[in-house]
Design goal:
single chain; 291 residues; alpha+beta; Immunoglobulin-like; 2 domains; 10 strands
Length: 291
């Protein structure tokens, strides 16, 4: 064999060996991976990221494995009779030279049957497996989907006043009433409307959800004001030396009003469960921001 031919053959074999040695994982870059925090006891959460296929050939993500849960699946959302529903998929296509976003309302990695809570800033190891069998391990960060609005004393600023969430600077007196009188029960309306796209809500569902606080805001406002008035009087009577028996009678009245607030909020939750599908409600519970 001529030296020139032998040299060309060696070069060719060397290049082919390099091509064989390269894996899909080597050509994949991961941007901004994170795992969504969920309320304590929630059974599942999701991981999101941007997957950049820098190679010249199409590939696919075929599976994933995390270490804070028992089952990990690839999911997407589909439209079903005007409602967006979550579905498991066998793979997520990664076109050559393109970035594929795993994001709320689209493709994502579901972490099911959590074995530990996701903490803010926590580093969560996830193994990504591609269509050639190669694997890339990433470090996803635990983070909340959205920050709760906090008041001066750390209370979540949520309410049913005027049928919408109240923001800083809007009716400060009413906000203080809401924060003080609200029992420790979830305020789902504002969160559901704000995340309508991710939850896959139809226009009709959003309309039905908004109708509840509009129908009950006046009654809730009345209860909040009565609670504040009674509790102010209770403080004054206690300082004036009124007997324990009389003070307890007035205290029971405030408890009765707070019970009405709690019952109304539970009714609101039950109404939400009627409007949403089970899948949508479970997802709403998973994205509900905790204090």
């Amino acid at each position: 064999m001529k030296p020139s031919v032998l040299f060309a053959l060696i070069i060719s074999l060397g290049l082919n060996a390099q091509a064989w040695a390269a894996s899909v994982a080597d050509s994949i870059k991961i941007e901004n991976p994170y795992v969504r925090m969920v309320p304590p006891g929630a059974p599942a959460t999701a991981a999101f990221m941007v997957i950049d296929n820098t190679g010249s050939q199409d590939h696919a993500l075929v599976s994933a494995k995390a270490y804070i849960n028992k089952v990990t699946e690839l999911h997407t959302h589909i439209h079903d009779n005007g409602v967006m529903r979550m579905r498991q998929v066998p793979k997520i296509d990664l076109p050559a030279g393109q970035k594929t976003a795993l994001q709320p309302g689209g493709f994502h990695i579901m972490l099911i049957n959590l074995t530990e809570p996701v903490k803010e800033g926590q580093h969560i190891k996830i193994d990504l497996t591609f269509d050639d069998g190669s694997t890339k391990t990433i470090d996803a960060i635990g983070r909340p989907l959205m920050k709760p609005m906090m008041g001066g004393k750390g209370h979540m600023q949520q309410g049913m006043m005027s049928g919408k969430m109240l923001s800083n600077g809007q009716n400060t007196h009413a906000m203080r009433l809401v924060m003080h009188a609200n029992p420790a029960l979830p305020n789902l309306t504002g969160i559901a409307v704000k995340n309508a796209a991710e939850l896959g809500l139809s226009a009709e569902q959003v309309t039905q959800i908004k109708a509840w606080p509009k129908a009950h805001s006046q009654e809730m406002s009345r209860l909040f004001n009565e609670i504040q008035t009674l509790e102010k009087a209770l403080i004054q009577d206690a300082l004036a030396g009124e007997s324990k028996a009389e003070l307890m009678k007035k205290f029971e009245k405030t408890l009765a009003l707070r019970r009405q607030v709690a019952e109304t909020k539970i009714d609101c939750r039950d109404n939400m469960k009627k409007i949403l599908t089970k899948e949508q409600f479970d997802k709403l519970a998973s994205i509900y921001p905790m204090m």
